[in-house]
Write a structure and sequence with these properties.
Radius of gyration: 44 Å
Keywords: Hydrolase, Membrane, Receptor, Transmembrane, Transmembrane helix
CATH class of one domain: Mainly Alpha
InterPro entries: HD/PDEase_dom, HD_domain, HDIG_dom, Metal-dep_PHydrolase_7TM_extra, Metal-dep_PHydrolase_7TM_intra, PgpH_phosphodiesterase
Low-confidence stretches: 39-45, 116-134, 758-799
CATH superfamily of one domain: Hypothetical protein af1432
GO molecular function: hydrolase activity
CATH topology of one domain: Hypothetical protein af1432
CATH architecture of one domain: Orthogonal Bundle
Strand content: under 5%
Protein name: 7TM receptor with intracellular metal dependent phosphohydrolase
Largest sheet: 4 strands, mixed
Distance between the termini: 47 Å
Strand order of the largest sheet: 6-5-3-8
């Protein structure tokens, strides 16, 4: 369960994160480039240290050799040129101001309150304490001092606190303290001035912590050391404290000295990072080898310097060529992926590709099947190494089941996307085979036809049928490729035919094997799974039939209605039908609270408050989602259950509540379903069919005109309520849906033949009492058959 929740959460994050698609694009492009051009990282050496040269080797052209010692020296110089970074904490004074001002303001206010309390207590007791503190007074004073120390941030002696109390915590004292602190901190206080002065010649980089602004400081003597700053307190404060008495002045000096903190600190980590960056930015120093210069003489032992020259020559030649090819391949692949993505996402009906989940799925499929040729080539060579099987390297590609990728994509993201996928994969695979045109055509045509034969796959055997068809197509294609490459082929083409046939069958088998895994990994639901869910023998549907037969019948009818309507508007009929079957499974838990399941019994809602009734109705959505999770019905079904009522209003119970309590006392939000509104056309169809089918049961005389009026009215009402805003149903679609619903409902409520009865009088009476859509109440007989003895005494079955 935790794994399932984690997977759902991961997919949700992917769907809601914007940069994911660009990261996936970069990832796919990088993988493709590395696989297409492996020779950019290949390094070969013809000689090792101490080998004897077989021939003279001269430099064919000018090239460079790195001067390692010179490069290292330049890097050390770059590191030394980096100035030491110090952080300037400009907000320290604001913090100290808040602490000092807050502490004195607190004590100044609480002191006045305490004095008033003390006077009141003295008057009440008649005892004159004359400055002597009782035990209670001492505890109170101690508590006040602790609060003052905590707020101020430094410890306060009992004597100093007594002085402050006598001064009634005069606000002049914090003003003087802050004035001295501001003057000293404005100059700058450093914790270790001796370490700072080591950079006096070069200067330092002073960085403001909060704004990250920087400047270079050369005059480092302007900053105070911590001891120096404390000594400056009395000097700076002397002109400010002329009006204070000696005791208070000393108190101000003491508090200020202890409040002073360094606001300029060494940032070692930033300094080291800048030095490392400066060293890394230094380009290697090379010295030039001229064309024609002798690199190695025949018969000489290879020295370390000669080996270095040879190595650099080969590396530069290969890397220059590899980098150019890699850059060109990178541009081509990136352009192809962007263009295909742009076309697919802008094409009408391909909205599903705008989700990050679909992009992730396609990226994974591209990477997996792009690595398949390498794996297949290794396997073929390993199998045929010690066997008499003759397989030409020119037609080795025929045995690679690349079509499985397009077939799989078609099952999840439709045929149009599979064509684009096959084009991208075929182009990249052709580059792996030296850009051969016949390879591209083989993989592309095979992939497109494989996807075409998988379009309407609703049975497992379709995989095998498609694989066999694809195998014979591959035989035809590989024959054309062999003739194109070698002219008139010989008997060796038989092995090519075998490979081609087996690759087609293998593509079908691979597709059948990976589809269930991809369904679980990405939360997709294929038509095959939907067909399995559409089986009315599913346990949850059988339970619905037994425990809530009215809901079961309603769900089956809704499924039929949405299936027909989906076919009319080009939606997925099987998905719509399955959503219709399961949309009300949440009613299983409380079936008798829903009108369709109340068989000749009282309505339980008659004894409930309207608000409670609405909660019961709303709860079937949440309970249905839980049942769908329990039975693993898939995300599409869970979404349909959650959204099939949207945010619609439970009008009956809302009107009932308004009638009982008044409109002002009733909140409409409490009588709405939680939503969200339908986000796909299939769920929108389920919402419309659910309402229309339920309402059609209430028609007294369901003739075609009444059914048409009901359908039109309900669809307009749902559309006007904004419930279809997010499901891409157009007005043209709504007209087609209404026609489809009318056709099915007219078939359900069609008039039946009235059979002749025994008594004309009884006939008249019953025909007067029943409605047109009810069957006659007498026993029906087949025309032309004689009445059997005792038939009039037969009781109705089931009663």
């Amino acid at each position: 369960m935790n794994i399932e929740k984690g997977k759902i959460r991961l997919l949700s994050i992917l769907e809601n994160t914007g940069p994911v698609k660009w990261l996936l694009l970069v990832l796919v492009t990088t993988v493709f480039t590395l696989v297409l051009y492996p020779n950019t990282i290949i390094r070969r050496h013809d000689y090792a240290l101490g080998d004897v040269a077989e021939r003279d080797i001269k430099a064919p052209r000018d090239f460079l050799i790195e001067d390692l010692s010179g490069t290292e020296k330049k890097r050390r110089q770059a590191e030394e040129s980096v100035l030491t970074v110090y952080d300037h904490n400009t907000i320290l004074i604001d913090t100290l101001r808040d602490n000092v001002t807050g502490a004195f303001s607190m004590m100044h206010t609480s002191g006045a309150d305490a004095d008033a309390t003390d006077v009141s207590d003295e008057d009440a007791s008649g005892v004159d304490i004359d400055g002597a503190s009782t035990g209670g007074d001492h505890r109170r004073v101690r508590a006040r001092r602790d609060a003052f120390e905590k707020k101020l941030g430094i410890s306060v002696s009992a004597g100093a606190f007594t002085i402050l109390e006598k001064e009634a915590f005069s606000l002049e004292i914090p003003t003087l303290i802050l004035g001295i602190l501001e003057r000293i901190l404005a100059k700058g206080v450093v914790s270790n001035k001796e370490l700072l002065l080591k950079d006096a010649e070069r200067g330092i980089r002073l960085r403001v912590v909060d704004s990250h602004e920087e400047k270079t400081i050369h005059n480092l003597d302007q900053f105070y050391g911590l001891d120096q700053a404390k000594a400056m307190v009395r000097i700076v404060g002397k002109p400010l404290m002329e009006s204070l008495n000696y005791t208070s002045a000393n108190l101000v000096v003491d508090f200020t000295q202890r409040l002073i903190q360094p606001n300029i600190t060494l940032n070692r980590r930033e300094t080291e990072d800048r030095k490392a960056a400066a060293a890394a930015a230094v380009k290697p120093i090379f010295y030039k080898i001229k064309a024609g210069e002798m690199l190695l003489r025949e018969g000489e032992r290879v020295t370390e310097m000669q080996l270095l020259k040879l190595k650099n020559l080969r590396q530069q030649s290969r890397l220059e060529k590899g980098y150019v090819r890699s850059l060109g391949g990178l541009i081509l692949i990136l352009s192809m992926l962007i263009i295909v993505y742009f076309i697919q996402t802008r094409h009408p009906g391909n909205g599903m590709l705008s989700s990050n989940k679909a992009i992730l799925f396609l990226s994974v499929m591209l990477i997996i099947f792009f690595l398949l040729p390498n794996v297949s080539e290794i396997l073929f060579k390993a199998v045929t190494r010690n066997t008499p099987i003759l397989i030409s390297d020119d037609t080795l590609f025929a045995g690679i089941p690349m079509a499985a990728g397009a077939m799989t994509v078609c099952l999840f993201l439709r045929f149009g996307t599979a064509i684009s996928f096959a084009a991208v994969l075929s182009a990249c695979a052709a580059v792996m085979f030296q850009g051969r045109f016949e390879v591209f055509l083989y993989f592309f045509l095979s992939g497109v036809m494989g996807a075409y034969w998988m379009q309407n796959c609703r049975e497992r055997k379709v995989f095998i049928k498609a694989g066999i068809r694809l195998g014979f197509l591959n035989v035809l294609l590989v024959t054309g490729a062999a003739v194109y490459i070698r002219g008139v082929p010989g008997f060796d083409i038989l092995w090519d035919w075998v490979l081609a046939l087996l690759s087609g069958i293998a593509a079908g088998i691979i597709t059948a094997g990976i589809v269930p895994m991809l369904e679980m990994a990405f939360g997709y639901t294929t038509d095959i799974t939907l067909m399995e869910l559409a089986n009315l023998e599913q346990p949850i549907l059988r339970r619905l039939m037994m425990e809530a037969p009215g809901t079961y019948h309603h769900s089956v009818v809704v499924g039929s209605m949405v299936e027909a309507a989906a076919a009319e508007i080009g939606a997925n009929p099987i998905l719509a039908k399955v959503c219709g079957y399961y949309h009300d499974i949440g009613k299983i838990n409380k079936p008798l609270y829903f009108i369709e399941n109340q068989m000749r019994c009282e309505n339980r809602h008659d004894k409930l408050a309207p608000s409670m009734s609405s909660l019961i109705l709303i709860s079937h959505v949440k309970e249905g989602v839980e049942l769908a999770k329990k039975h693993k019905l898939g995300r599409e079904i869970m979404t349909a259950i959650q959204q099939h009522h949207g945010t619609s209003l439970i009008r009956f119970f809302y009107d009932k509540a308004v009638k009982l309590r008044g409109e002002q006392a009733v909140k409409m939000e409490n009588f709405r379903y939680p939503g969200p509104k339908p986000e796909t056309r299939e769920i929108g169809l389920v919402m419309l069919a659910d309402v229309v089918e339920a309402a059609s049961r209430t028609l007294e005389n369901p003739n075609p005109s009444r059914i048409q009026g009901l359908v039109q009215s309900l669809i307009n009402k749902i559309f006007s309520d904004g419930q279809l805003d997010y499901c891409e149903l157009t007005l043209k679609d709504l007209h087609s849906i209404a026609k489809s619903f009318n056709k099915i409902l007219n078939g359900i409520h069609h008039h039946r033949i009235e059979y002749p009865e025994k008594s004309a009088a009884k006939d008249d009476k019953e025909n007067h009492e029943r409605t047109d859509h009810q069957q006659p109440k007498s026993v029906q007989r087949f025309p032309g058959k004689p009445k059997e003895d005792g038939a009039d005494h037969l009781k109705r079955l089931g009663l």
